[in-house]
Amino acid sequence: MKLTCLTFLLSLSLMVNAQNNFKATQIKFERVEKAYNEKWETLKKFVLSGGYGDQFSMVINAYKTEGKLEIWLKNNSAKTYSLFRTYDFCAHSGTIGPKVFEGDGQTPEGFYYVNVFNPMSNFHLSLGVNYPNTVDYARTGKDRKPGSDIYIHGNCVTVGCIPLTDEKIKEVYVLGVEARNAGQEKIPVNIYPFKMTDGNMKKYIAQFPAQANFWKSLQAGYLAFEKNKYPAEIKEVKGRYLVTKEVKF
Hints:
By secondary structure, the chain is an alpha+beta fold.
């Protein structure tokens, strides 16, 4: 029994050290250190006053038509997320509808997560998104390349990414580092063509009927989050998204 407890405590200690080391490693980079020096003191005051504490998780929701990127946070001991900040895109690329192939200039639509923290980006700082996933590959087909390197980044140029200003990406990046450092392995990044209300669905499907089935699969995830303020369990099944479980409290 004692050996089991010691093994558990050792594993827990290693996990905590690995998490703390993430921030320590990131902050060694000049741009990240500067972002913390400029942004974290003020951000932390709002984080604490919002009840998110020192350990929080994060969800990113982006809406292409509205040009808005939302940051949702929750204290790690809380059950649901609440909206913390909203940032404007500072440039747009393509139109609504998912990214299909390399070079089409489209920003993806779908359910993703942050898979790269790039402190030496050509666009100041950037958070990479795990595009393409299996749904994207199925859409692209065998004879074309789906493209890659989709980021939320600074500067104001884009050929498919989500650009914020350098000042805004500093905040988003720091919040991401804090969430990752607190133990969140995958920060969800949900990219929608628009706020997926029934009214908007009717409006935009009339203009883009070929996207109807795909957008309906996105809407199911969107509505589950709107209702429960917690991401639904979403699986990639035969080239489409499927909500397999809503987390309700």
